[in-house]
Amino acid sequence: MAAAVRRAARIGDVWVSSMNPSFEELRALLGEFDAARDGLPPAPERPTMRECYIGQTLESAVSDVRDILYAKYRTYQSWGVASSQSKVEDRAGFEALMQTKFLVGDERTVAERLRWLRDELGIDHVIARVRWPGLSEEQALETMRRLAHIAARL
Q: Residue limits of the Luciferase-like domain (predicted)?
């Protein structure tokens, strides 16, 4: 994937990461992007895409979406999607994996992750996927409302 990121840096002006890299993998890939853009104009944006679900509490958020996202990412893995070093093995390990890749939690937790993405990685645009098969429309709408509340404070 690093070669694709370097190519995007050389021939484009922005690279949008998929949702698969962990936050630390994203840091390394952005380093590749920056190194390949050396001597070129700065990228006008620094976006990332992330799965996002904001519940009333951290525990309820994880409980609400763990099985849905687990099934989704197991399916991706079965198709050969390999844009991350992290592998989806079992449900217990997946919950820990969720914390390294996704914006899933209560408002405080998600706000902290968004601040970290902004302050540590320079992310200035987050494309949040808030709806997936198995998640109700009302849950997605509530996440959008909570995300708007967080964004207004960032």
A: 3-124
Q: Which two tokens stand for residue 91?
A: 């449900």
Query: What is the residue range of 61's domain?
Result: 2-153
Domain tally for the chain?
1
Distances 125 to 100, 112, 118 between C-alpha atoms, Å: 19, 15, 9
Report how far apart the first and last C-alpha atoms of the chain are (Å, whole number). Answer: 31
Q: Does the model's pTM come out above 0.85?
A: yes
Residue-level pLDDT, tens digit, the chain, 154 residues? 789 899 999 998 899 998 889 999 999 999 999 999 999 998 999 999 999 999 999 999 999 999 999 998 888 888 877 655 666 777 778 888 899 999 999 999 999 999 999 999 999 999 999 999 999 999 999 999 999 999 999 9
State how far the Cα of 108 lies from the Cα of 112, in Å rounded to an integer.
6
